Amino acid sequence: MSVVYRVALVLVIIGAINWGLIGFFRIDLVAYLFGGQTAVLSRWIYAIVGLAGLISIPILIMRFDEDEDLDPHTRIDRNPSYGMEIGDEEDFTAFNTTDVLKEEKKDSHSKNKHHNRK
């Protein structure tokens, strides 16, 4: 997000807070701070916040995966890496399970008995 959009978004948030204060407490903070609603400075601030709202409209349709300041080593991307950070994980599928080892031991034991009888 560019600097212009960030500044516009901050101004829109300030405007939203001012509208919330008006709605909940009947306090217009901008008018209070800058000499009333009809004061020139207050009208300029209202106009700037209004322009910031217009500038912020494209943020609604912006793709959020275009964040340029995202660290490439984070796992927030669409294709996360499940590998270990210190190296590749071992493939344990080549190792026999305990059931297979028991069967092999039983077979070798029975072959040894059969071999010892001869």
Automatic annotation (TrEMBL):
> Per its UniProt record, what Pfam families does this chain match?
DUF378 (PF04070)
- What InterPro entries would the database entry show? DUF378
Q: Where are the transmembrane segments?
A: 7-32, 44-62
Record keywords, A-Z: Membrane, Transmembrane, Transmembrane helix
Q: Which domain of life is it from?
A: Bacteria
Matches recorded under PANTHER family: MEMBRANE PROTEIN (PTHR37304:SF1), MEMBRANE PROTEIN-RELATED (PTHR37304)
Name under which the protein is recorded? DUF378 domain-containing protein
Which species is listed as the source?
Answer: Lysinibacillus zambalensis
